[in-house]
TrEMBL record:
Positions with biased composition (Pro residues): 292-302
Localization in the cell: Cell membrane
Domain Peptidase M48: 70-277
Name of this protein: Protease HtpX homolog
PANTHER family: PROTEASE HTPX
Coiled coil (residue ranges): none
Species whose genome carries this gene: Propylenella binzhouense
Co-factor: note: Binds 1 zinc ion per subunit.
UniProt gene name: htpX
Listed GO CC annotations: plasma membrane
NCBIfam families the UniProt entry points to: PRK01345.1, PRK03001.1
Membrane-related topology note: Multi-pass membrane protein
First-tier enzyme category under EC: hydrolase
Gene Ontology molecular function: any one: metalloendopeptidase activity
Region (Disordered): 283-318
Amino acid sequence: MNLMKTAMLLATLTAIFMGVGYLIGGGNGAFIAFLVAAAMNLFSYWNADKIVLRMHNAHEVDARSAPEYFRIIERLAARAGLPMPRVYVIDDAQPNAFATGRNPQNAAVAATTGLLERLTPEEVAGVMAHELAHVQNRDTLTMTITATIAGAISMLANFAFFFGGNRDNNSPLGPIAVLLAAITAPIAAMLVQMAISRTREYSADRRGAEICGQPLWLASALAKIANAAHRIPMYSAERNPATAPLFIINPLSGERMDNLFSTHPATENRIAALQEIAREMGAGGGRSFEPATPPPASPAPSGPWGNAGRRTARGPWG
């Protein structure tokens, strides 16, 4: 089902890409846009996860460089019956996280240092269980490719502003078409993203609650992340707004037009749904996941985050 959804989504985004190309350069523009979109679709299937991780300057960590964080992912993956994903940290003060990869065998999860500093181990487990649920539901291919292609559509629309107004261009409608393309293309891409995102988040919340065994851990984490995201900007997301649907909470500050097309359900609604799931699972919330216990004391090579090299008394690893 997700494979068909991904194919339909790619077809829609390719059509938007070609439409913008036609408005900018007529038939030749549409043909060139088709060739670019086809090449991008193929490239994105194999490399979109690497592109997104690079956009946010994520660095990979392991059991030695980030023992607590890595062991939580390790135990959650085992509970979910998933292969161990690659584990990344993003040096950013805003608490947030996302998953990426074309399938469970090639998945990666990433959390910001803000998330690891500000949340308890239980809340971190709830968040990362949600991200592993995306991996298990095979949402990550759709999410990552959509982010890559939608970003390209936005860039094509921006290109129209600089070159489309030239008298020598082949646009059938002239400068008006160029302006229309520049305005509508990013909106159309965001609407496509929004169409696939809302139910996907509710599904991942439920499955993540089942994986960690405690829905209220994720509910508590969502409240903290949403509150901080409004106050702490994530500059890598502001530079690449098409990647916003990947994150567990919309990382955009709301200062850009992109934020008008939020791809996430209201946090209050997600928390209410998780509270209902907790009631369904019983007062204890189901079979509890125990966060990884600290290893025996030993010199840390560079701090709990890998190369960030710092500890904090506020966070679960301090």
